[in-house]
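To: structure desk
From: M.T.
Subject: fold request, one chain
Message: Could you run this one when you get a chance? Sequence is below, nothing fancy, just the single chain.
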Amino acid sequence: MATKKLAQQDLLETIFSSDEDDLDPNDSSAMTLIEHLEELRKRIFFSIIALVITSIAAFVFRNQIVYLLSLPLPTGQSDVIGHKLVVTGITEGFTVFLMISVAAGFIIALPFILYQVWAFISPGLLEKEKKYAVPFIMVGIVLFAAGIALGYIVLRYPVEWLVTFASDSFTELVTAGSYFTFVAFFLLAFGIVFEIPLVLTFLAQIDLISSKTLIKKRAASHVGMWIASTFLTPGADLYSPIFLGVAMSCLFELTIIFIKIIKK
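Reply: Done. Structure tokens follow.
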């Protein structure tokens, strides 16, 4: 009986001593809650600084950006459309330029912001998970840029449909605020949708999903994505949901292939 108690006591001492030996006071993953909050504050501060710098740089080239974003507008519909957009307030012109500069600045600063996100979460990851950091960030940037590019190509279809829909009954005065807000949400929707492979692959890496799960849910996923494409694309034109739906379906199938390759 005494031997059994001594054996249990030795087992408990081994467990607790091994836990204490594993704790490294210099390990960044062993930070307290206050230290985690301080680290989060620092990363957010760096991201804001980067966003401010890139937004200022974009503001310098605001006229070129506005010209580029105005190209999808149809021409020849009225004296206003195809020339200059309308502002309805004394501050609206500056506000629109500011909004466009911040949006462009965010896109430019996205690599640095993603790095700050990685720097915050990396202490809690394993070494085998950390080695995927740079590829994940690069792929995320490429996918987001591809989504923005496709959205810009498709943009002229919903814009043309919305502008010409009631042109026979009304005089179209397209305000700068409404137009660029529409453009920002439209391009952002495409950019976010193109991050689907990255998100699903990450979930597969932490064993929350698998390629077998995606294959099993393939039919329902495609139906859901095509339904979502009709809500994510403002306007009632036929082309935008088709472009987005095809892109989402292709990305979903590519994700299955990526997960199989990475798991191997």
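Reply (cont.): Residues 34 and 40 are 10 Å apart (CA to CA). Let me know if you need anything else for the meeting.
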